[in-house]
Amino acid sequence: MPEAFLTLLLFQLIGVIAQRALTLPIPGPVIGMFLLAGTLLWRKSRQTLASDDADAAEAPAASPALSSLARSLIACLGLLFVPAGVGLVTELPVLGANVVPIVASLFGSTVLGLLVTAFVMHRATHDAPAPEQVSDADGQVL
Prior knowledge:
Blueprint (H helix, E strand, L loop, with lengths): L1 H21 L5 H25 L11 H12 L5 H10 L1 H6 L1 H27 L17
Helix pairs in contact: 1-2, 1-3
Subcellular location: Cell membrane
InterPro entries: LrgA/CidA
Protein name: CidA/LrgA family protein
């Protein structure tokens, strides 16, 4: 598992270096996460091609150690809300002084998100037949 943790740290470092070198407005760890995801997808596509070609060597998409570490970190993800909660409590006077703009922005962003989602769904499905006109294939799951 240490090599898996080092892999995560290496991709985070690469992301931070790329962010600083290219002066991108995206945090370095986020860039590193996308680079790691891209690398894993690339390795998985190589594995798929290798399974189609009998002469090619198989390459696993992700090591078992990396998968295990990812599951362990996701299991502890709830702990990351503790610092955010403490930060909110320590900033209660600031939040109280700005309650109207905060509530307005939360309400406005929620309404805007709902409208954009409805517009996208309407545009994506306006040519599709109504659900009651779609065949259910005699109840069989495809």
